[in-house]
Amino acid sequence: MQIYQYKNKMTIHRYGWILLVSIIAMVLTGCHKPTITDDQVTIPVFSPVEGTYYDQVDVTITTSTLGTTILYTTDGSDPNSSSAVYSGPISILEDTVIKAKAFRNGLLDSPVASATYIIEPHPVVSAPVLNLPGGTYISNQTVSISCTTPGSIIYYAFNENPTEDSEQYTGPINVSSSCAIKAKAYKDGWEPSPIVVVNYEIEPAPVITPHLGDTGDPPVVFHGHTVYLNDTNNGIDAVPEGNWIRVSWVPFQVSDQSYIKIFRYSNLDLEPVLLATVSPSEHYYIDDFDDLAERVYYSYFIDLVSPYGGAIRSDTSSYALLSKSLLLTPTNNATISPLNTQFSWNRSGTADKYRLLILDSNNNYIWHQDLLSSQEEDPLSMSMPINLASEYSGHSLKWRVDSFEWSDELQVFIGSESIDRIFHLQ
Description:
Helix content: under 10%
Mean pLDDT: 89
Structural class: mainly beta
Distance between the termini: 164 Å
Number of strands: 36
Largest sheet: 6 strands, mixed
Strand content: 35-45%
Low-confidence stretches: 1-33
Radius of gyration: 48 Å
Shape: rod-shaped
């Protein structure tokens, strides 16, 4: 009898603990989730659920209870009768806490529902990187493009903005002419990269300017430009100051880091000789390496050498010198009358024709007259027109005599230029 009573007490004690634990669990559960009764509006539901989104998210609010009115706030406060009435999706453009509460006559108000939305900008694809810096180069170049954003796809175009319809980068690009390479990288779900633009100037092969003519000749067209010939722009030619030849070339656009090597050979010695190394900013060179022989065909070419390695060679231009005329009168710095401007000289060799040139003090062309070679004995002479000489009365001018002979081999006039003399017109 005692044993039975003891077991019965133990059973009651055990079931009491179970009941107590159940009650505590119900209380704890109620702290985290509102209890919805049959006479209460169901709690509002947000779609999409709270979380982190890029740029913007449109949130809808619903409740399963029909005929309700939903009030909401976006400032973190609980909704009340003066809060906004939900009528359609809410556009969230920045970090926002939405709270909502649903109402219906005859039912208890719903609990307050809350959702937090974090808005971040879309990640942006890194800008593409071209391995070759922009600049001027003297030969074809190879350009590679990369992007540090994994999974990105690079598109590029020449001289126009790239899109996803442009050429997709798959390997090194050969650049053989001046251009701008524009590149842009894309990745699904990311903002595309900014457009990267790199400009490349590819210097064409150097061009030695051939003998275009002489001071006093009519204008000529060279490389698409009309050239009014003078002593500095007429290409390879003789110079007054000795038995030397001036070599010129079409100007370059390359940086000062490049340099030019100038070579010469002749019909008597075909082995090229390096004459000098000069800056690419120079556009001519006077071959005063030594006194050049008369009637020898001297040929010149240049190498444009890149600081990145490699060189590109020009074409070749040739010229030959004649002996210089020996000026007689007027003597240097002589004063003469505009009415008597006779200029005389002796030959020191043979030539097809001689040209008397009158220049101003800045070497600008004023007048010339040609004298064809004849059987006349030295001295040869010509006079300046009186009316022209009178226009320059009171001025100091220069005169010289150029000698010419046609070369069938070069198809140009070869020649020489005498030393200038200064004279003063009364």
